[in-house]
Amino acid sequence: MRAVQVTRTGGPDVLEVADLPTPEPGPGEVLVDVAAAGVNFIDTYRRSGAYPMSTPFVAGSEGAGTIARLGPDVSELAVGDRVAWKEAPGSYAEQVCVPVAEVVPVPDSVSDEVAAATMLQGMTAHYLATSTYPVGKGDWALVHAAAGGVGLLLTQIVKLRGGRVLATTSTADKAELARGAGADEVTSYDDFADRARELTDGEGFPVVYDGVGRATFERGLDALRVRGLMVLYGAASGPVPAFDPQTLNSKGGLFLTRPSLAYYTRDRAELADRAGELFGWIGAGQLDVRIGGRYSLADAAQAHEDLEGRRTTGKLLILTS
Ligand code: NDP
């Protein structure tokens, strides 16, 4: 089978297509014919060595496809089932072994592409808006990079819950997309804290969702109201430097959390609940999943370049055919 392999960590050019043996599903695993693999920022952290990996490894972790073989003790799934997953190392490939605990069934109303595009970014947007800070009616939320993969979905979910969104984006086209997803206000990365205060008569917002990191984190604290919550969930612009907790006191007894999807999908039931609600919204036409780019396995390096180069909107997919 063809797969995108990394033999040494580095820039996008270390992503190379290789012919590798079809993997064997072990106990508790299924072998899946991959239709679409999702491209995520975490794939770039692993490729570059920012998140240490032992080489060689096949890139990617998210995808959707059809079960081709069952591991020795697997009885609850069947060959031919359409499934999706957020975490199966080696998903930029024609075939991958997925642990049963990670498998989510895909309903007929959701295509393979949309399923692959929903698992990691969709479930992230879901836990951010429903669990980390459960957005209530009328709540203002600051959503950074609102035209991105997580950002477009998070904006829509905040709106579904009756909240209001102040979005940041870097270009006019991206601002238009954020508005299309329901953002009430869109602003630049220069004045979002002032804008948040203007919109709330000086009080500030109850929550900031920040996946940009270094470039926005500190100023984001100034957008929060007393006892507001800073949700730092990523580092698209680089990691946030060391930080004095006393700042949280001087800016209003703020709360800070650095969540990960793994802590919000702790067992199969929680994973199935989040995916089920997302697929339900998609089937009912309440949530639009924008596929911003489709690439072949051979173009995986280009996908990473585009994502890191800030040239993308919505979700990027790698298609196997
Ligand atoms: P996006 O599609 O949002 O792409 C990143 C966006 O960030 C860019 O398009 C860009 O939008 C913005 N950005 C701002 N500054 C920079 C910069 N210096 N370099 C690159 N991009 C920049 O990516 P994802 O939706 O895949 O991920 C968004 C964030 O969410 C990432 O940090 C990722 O690691 C994190 N994440 C965290 C998870 C968790 O559970 N904690 C799970 C999933 C993702 P613009 O041009 O408008 O500024």
UniProtKB/TrEMBL annotation:
Its EC number is 1.6.5.5. Residues 10-318 form the Enoyl reductase (ER) domain. GO terms for cellular component: cytosol. The keyword 4Fe-4S does not apply. Coiled coil: none annotated. Gene3D superfamilies: Medium-chain alcohol dehydrogenases, catalytic domain, NAD(P)-binding Rossmann-like Domain. SMART domains: PKS_ER. PROSITE patterns: QOR_ZETA_CRYSTAL. InterPro entries: ADH-like_C, ADH-like_N, ER, GroES-like_sf, NAD(P)-bd_dom_sf, QOR-like, Quin_OxRdtase/zeta-crystal_CS. GO terms for molecular function: mRNA 3'-UTR AU-rich region binding; NADPH binding; quinone reductase (NADPH) activity; zinc ion binding. The keyword NADP applies. Keywords: NADP, Oxidoreductase. This is NADPH2:quinone reductase. It comes from Actinopolymorpha cephalotaxi.
